[in-house]
Design a protein that fits this description.
By secondary structure, this protein is α/β, with parallel strands linked by helices. It contains 10 helices and 12 strands. It has helices spanning about 5, 20-35, 45-55, 70-80, 95-105, 115-135, 170-180, 185-195, 200, 205-215; strands at about 15-20, 40, 60-65, 85-90, 110, 140-145, 150, 155-160, 160-165, 185, 225-230, 235. It starts with a helix and ends with a strand.
């Protein structure tokens, strides 16, 4: 029975499955997609951490024994970066000490292999309900691109896990870029919608604030990858 038939509401929620057993990846991916989840996968800890920090997910299914970086390390790194995405750890180990360690470093739940798919689905649904009630923001309010995480409701920005201080105007500008991702925005449009100034008088102020954002968020401000210049037209946000 699918979630639609049973009254569930996965609603296309995004799941990141970090698991190195091909057979289990295939089984779980098919199971989750049949329930309406949008599933992305990673086969080792480092690529899993990269995906988790670069994109927004509703829940992360994280194996403990992974190549290149253990699930424990991935979980700890995510929590240290301020990522509050629910994490369900999967492992063949059933010892209490392993479960306690996982929970202590920030995991939300723990499921020992082998397990029934129905139990996994029930755990996922429980975690999603719990996180919806616990967190003041939804995943849609949290945007991740490269090393940067922006929480729009909390007005909080982190880069490589460290808090970035932005002025109110800088934050409004960044928010406008995020909300119009991929669009070429003229200086006049930015002034009208962010500053609400007379564009003919204050057109250069946009360049100053864009330069400041690049200095705070770009890996190399001289070669921007997030906020790029569209010569003769304005700027485009590619995060």
């Amino acid at each position: 029975m699918t979630s639609a038939e049973s009254g569930g509401s996965s609603g296309g929620r995004r799941v990141l499955l970090v698991e190195d057993e091909p057979g289990l990846v295939l089984t779980l991916t098919d199971c989750l997609r049949a329930e309406g989840y949008d599933v992305e996968t990673a086969e080792d800890g480092e690529s899993g951490l990269e995906r988790a920090t670069a994109e927004a997910f509703d829940i992360i299914l994280l194996d403990v024994m992974l190549p290149r970086k253990s699930g424990f390390d991935v979980c700890r790194d995510l929590r240290q970066r301020g990522d509050a995405t629910p994490i369900l750890m999967l492992t063949a180990r059933g010892q209490l000490v392993e479960k306690v360690l996982g929970l202590k470093i920030g995991a939300d739940d723990y499921l020992a292999k082998p397990f029934e798919p129905m139990e996994l689905l029930a755990r996922i649904e429980a975690l999603l309900r719990r996180s919806a009630g616990r967190l003041p923001t939804s995943v849609r309010d949290v945007h991740r691109f490269g090393d940067v995480q922006v929480d729009l409701k909390r007005t909080e920005v982190r880069c490589r896990g460290e808090r970035v201080e932005l002025s109110a105007l800088e934050f409004r500008l960044l928010r406008y870029f995020i909300e119009h991702r991929g669009q070429t925005l003229s200086r006049d449009a930015l002034l009208d919608n962010v500053w609400r100034y007379d564009a003919s008088v204050y057109s250069r102020t946009v360049d100053v604030h864009v330069r400041t954002l690049r200095q705070k968020l770009e890996r190399d401000p001289a070669k921007p990858e997030l906020i790029v210049t569209v010569y003769g037209l304005g700027y485009k946000f590619l995060g």
